[in-house]
Structure formats: structure tokens, C-alpha cells
Amino acid sequence: MAKKKERSVNVSGKPKHSLDVNRNGSTAKTSGGRSSATVNRLKMYKSRPKRDRKGKILKHDFQSSELPSTRIRPDRNWFGNTRVVGQKQLEFFREELQSRLSSNYTVLLKERKLPLSLLNDRQKQSRVHLLDTESFADAFGPKGKRKRPKLLASNYESLAKRADGSQGAFEEKRGASSSVEENEDGFRDLVRHTMFEKGQSKRIWGELYKVIDSSDVVIQVLDARDPLGTRCYHLEKHLKEHCTHKHLILLLNKCDLVPAWVTKGWLRVLSKEYPSLAFHASINKSFGKGSLLSVLRQFSRLKSDKQAISVGFVGYPNVGKSSVINTLRTKNVCKVAPIPGETKVWQYITLTKRIFLVDCPGVVYQNNNDSETDIVLKGVVCIILPYILGIDRCGFHHCEAYVSNSIAYQKLLPSLALWACSFFFKKN
């Protein structure tokens, strides 16, 4: 007769249910049991609110055992306005805020905590009274009386006159070229080469707007030899109208190529509008590096609510934007070249943990008043031919002394540069 299996008794007193981590004295890894995290998760799934016999909830799920006191003291101050601002106080604060914001040397702190929507004046926009001219029921719906649209011009002559008037207003607003205005037929006698349209493509302007959108501080690099010619007023107007929270700094680069009194004069003029600094880009022997770094550190302290700030460098081609970044980093992190157009796309460079530098390709704003000579002298295009209109402003001996010194320093062929200057003066 077979013996019956006796049921094992838990003598140790340890539970053997599935929600016990130390079941049978083994760990979860060796026996394939449940870990403590799995057990806690399963217990959370089974948690339910506690109820009495009648089904009334005594304690909700995930509710703390100690309930705070929810009684509100019957006081009128709890149900009234805590702060009241009168119209005079609001107007005074608005005027003070506008006077501070108009200055380019001030920085608005805690901008997100101020109700700027209440402080800014509403833009005065002319309302179009469409319903006063023609009601909605007369134009649309089953009782509509209008069978054809109301055109602004009834024939081609009136349409042509209206187009001429709008074109004239557009040219006056945008500042049309003088060459078109001089000719009565509206044609220009000179057709420029596509070489003089460098830096005006949509791709490069797209790169510029990417840099502006991602930057907290915008540094416009100017050439000390022609600060006004290499200055982009369109960019400054865009920052004033659409990016009021961004800060603009004018950096006068290549100050080693002009006398000291010229640099002082330009700094005196430019500092009336924006903060201006003189700079000489060089990894070994630089000038103005400490001043620029101190300004950037001040902005990083003022923007303490942000984890890091981005500083964008914009300007004309070949003004030294990449060279300035290399000077701040004290090593070659951006490609530089003596010809314009070396930087093709925007790029991020880390200066410190809280300051990032953004390099931008050279952008040229289309100005029809600039001649080909002005474009060449601004450094927008690379000089290939020895003939340059406007070089007759200086004598041959000045060109010979300057070119021979600069070329000999670079250990190149000085005779080639001297031949280029002599070729021009013999030709003229």
C-alpha cells in the first residue's frame, strides 16, 4: 500500500507568499523570484481606498494620514484686492520703464516677472471698416445682392496708374538707387557682375536669422577703416522692432590698421548709440580681449535665470568675425582666410560653461547706392585684377612703401605687388 505524502509544515515561521522577497531564504536573482521593486509595484496596483461597512470612503488612496487644517479665518482681507495700482502710478511706471528701455546701456532684470503686456502701449493700427462699407448680408448668404467683386480698378489704365503709384511709394520708402532715378526710361546703363552680389543670397540671410534667434547678445563686428560702410542698419532696425530683449554691441576690429586718434574718434561717435569696443584680433598679441571678456561675463551674471548665454558675431564679410572668436579662445577653432566668404554656415563654439559663441557668415545688405569701387573697398569681394577704380586717391610712393613692407613681412614676392601698382599708374 502506497504511503501518503505528508504535507510540509512551515516550522521556521517565514511566509511563503508571492509578495515576499526573501521567500525560501533565496534572492530574486538566483531563484527567479520577485525583486523588492516588483513587489512594491504590485502592491501599488492593489492599493484601494479604505471604506466603512456602508461603503463610505474613509481614506483615499495615496492620502497622507495627517490632514491639514482647512478652516479659513473669516476675514475680509482674504476676499479683496491685495494690491491696487492707480492710473497715475501706472502711467508714471510706464514712462520710467520706457525711458530705461530706450537706453542701450541698461539691462532689464526679472523681465518674466513684470507684466509687460500691461505696461507696453498698444500699437496704433488703423481699423478697416468693412462692415460699414458693405454689410455681411449684402455680400454673402441667400439674400446677397453682390454678384461680382468690387475691384479697385475698372480698366487697365487705372490699374497701371495704381501700380505706378505703389511702385513710387515703395521706392521712396526703401530708398531706390540714384542711377534708376537719373534715367527717364528706367533702365540702368551698367550691369554688375554677379561677383558683386556676394553675401546677399537667401541662404546666407537664413543663417543670419538663425544666429540672431539663438543669441542673447549680438556683437556687430565693424572694420575700423570704414565703420559706417561695414555697418548694417537694417540689422539694427530689426533688433529694435522685433528683438527688444536682445542686446547689441559694436566691436571695432582691425584698429591696428588706423591711427589711435581715428579709433578714439570712432569710439566717441559709436558709443552714443550702442556700447562700443576697440579690438585687434590676434592669438598672440591682441588688444581689447580683456574688455570684451569682462562685458560678456557681466551679461552672464545679469542673465542668471538662464543656464548659459549665447553671443552671436555678425557683420560684413572679411571684417574678422572668426578671428575674434579665435582670439577669445586663444587657439584656432574657426577657419580664417584673407579672402571673404570662408565661413559658410553658422557654428557654435564653447567659451566657458555659461558663455557660448556663435559664428555667422558674412552678410551684405543690398544697397543700390554703393558702386563697385565701394563694394571692393569694403572687402566684400576678392581683388583679382590690378586695376582698382579709386586707387588714384593715393600716390605711387605710398602704395610702394605699404605694399613692399607688408609683402616682405609675409615673405612673398614684393615685385608682383609693385608691378600691379606700377601697371595702374602707367595706364593712367
Automatic annotation (TrEMBL):
<dbReference type="GO" id="GO:0005525">
    <property type="term" value="F:GTP binding"/>
</dbReference>
<feature type="compositionally biased region" description="Polar residues">
    <location>
        <begin position="21"/>
        <end position="39"/>
    </location>
</feature>
<dbReference type="InterPro" id="IPR006073">
    <property type="entry name" value="GTP-bd"/>
</dbReference>
<protein>
    <recommendedName>
        <fullName>Nuclear/nucleolar GTPase 2</fullName>
    </recommendedName>
</protein>
<dbReference type="GO" id="GO:0016787">
    <property type="term" value="F:hydrolase activity"/>
</dbReference>
<keyword id="KW-0378">Hydrolase</keyword>
<feature type="domain" description="CP-type G">
    <location>
        <begin position="205"/>
        <end position="366"/>
    </location>
</feature>
<keyword id="KW-0342">GTP-binding</keyword>
<feature type="compositionally biased region" description="Basic residues">
    <location>
        <begin position="43"/>
        <end position="54"/>
    </location>
</feature>
<dbReference type="InterPro" id="IPR012971">
    <property type="entry name" value="NOG2_N_dom"/>
</dbReference>
<dbReference type="InterPro" id="IPR030378">
    <property type="entry name" value="G_CP_dom"/>
</dbReference>
<keyword id="KW-0539">Nucleus</keyword>
<comment type="similarity">
    <text>Belongs to the TRAFAC class YlqF/YawG GTPase family. RsgA subfamily.</text>
</comment>
<dbReference type="InterPro" id="IPR027417">
    <property type="entry name" value="P-loop_NTPase"/>
</dbReference>
<dbReference type="InterPro" id="IPR050755">
    <property type="entry name" value="TRAFAC_YlqF/YawG_RiboMat"/>
</dbReference>
<dbReference type="Pfam" id="PF01926">
    <property type="entry name" value="MMR_HSR1"/>
</dbReference>
<feature type="region of interest" description="Disordered">
    <location>
        <begin position="1"/>
        <end position="54"/>
    </location>
</feature>
<dbReference type="GO" id="GO:0005730">
    <property type="term" value="C:nucleolus"/>
</dbReference>
<dbReference type="Pfam" id="PF08153">
    <property type="entry name" value="NGP1NT"/>
</dbReference>
<keyword id="KW-0547">Nucleotide-binding</keyword>
<comment type="function">
    <text>GTPase involved in pre-60S ribosomal subunit maturation.</text>
</comment>
<dbReference type="InterPro" id="IPR024929">
    <property type="entry name" value="GNL2_CP_dom"/>
</dbReference>
